[in-house]
């Protein structure tokens, strides 16, 4: 098993390299860039994404440094009133005076040293920026995944044991209906019903904690945290119940019909011993195989809309705003970090296979 893990870790390097090459190449063909963002700000046209301009984001106020004299570089739209020296200075500051290949190799060299650079517009390191936004995404991803598994696995087992019953029919209808509702629509519905929209003011409208969080007792902090995350976590989790529940049910149904189950029952083993001592271990393999995808999708995929609706400042909004504002250090830094996390989670998934069923040997399978 150690040799298999070592080979998987070695594969992380070319996989990450391929991800970075593809995305860096695509970015070269995307219109606009950080220089265009600053030119638009200086020319008084506003920014493509206003949240990245000026004030709290740390974007420089360049309007007083120009004087509006001279002719700008023709390759930048709207730069005709800017001095060429200013355009050249911007290119040098952002590293665009170098050819793309050299920029890419410099970026990889910095990443090897775990230096992800600094945001163009926020004047803060990419790692510090990710760590600042991480609590929100961890809250949504971790709790949503745990709740989905804690509900879906027992429910799926119950549905398998009562296959075809009214309980099975009604629960299938309920989870499929929940799956069909878009996450953002369900989130808005929760706000309208329980966050003071039109009916009850039960939960807070925004934020992860209250303003007086630091002054609360330990138990008060726990309650306040749970109070704030209830609606966002519920909105993130509701769609994942259907897939996990039906996957668990079908896995159990397949295993229950196999000969070893009938043999175990014929030997006089109790039903619980048959289900949880034999069937559970085999049926859970396919469920565990989907764990990385469920976790990553909840952690990164659906967080943007949920974070926006509930006014949470997490990794989803960070990545979206960075892409819109062409904040390339944040875009590539987060892409590298998230890609690395996804690959590591995949290796952890294989280890969980072995933990659930020690009979699995990945080295023999590869041989």
From TrEMBL:
Name of one Pfam family that matches: BPD_transp_1
Origin superkingdom: Bacteria
Chief location: membrane
Domain ABC transmembrane type-1: 134-353
CDD domains: TM_PBP2
Biological process according to GO: microcin transport; transmembrane transport
Listed transmembrane segments: 9-30, 136-157, 169-195, 225-248, 283-310, 330-356
Matches recorded under InterPro entries: MetI-like, MetI-like_sf
GO cellular component, one term: plasma membrane
Membrane topology qualifier: Multi-pass membrane protein
Alphabetical keyword list: Cell inner membrane, Cell membrane, Membrane, Transmembrane, Transmembrane helix, Transport
Cellular localisation: Cell inner membrane; Cell membrane
Family designation: Belongs to the binding-protein-dependent transport system permease family.
Protein name from the UniProt record: Microcin C transport system permease protein
Organism lineage string: Bacteria, Pseudomonadati, Pseudomonadota, Alphaproteobacteria, Rhodobacterales
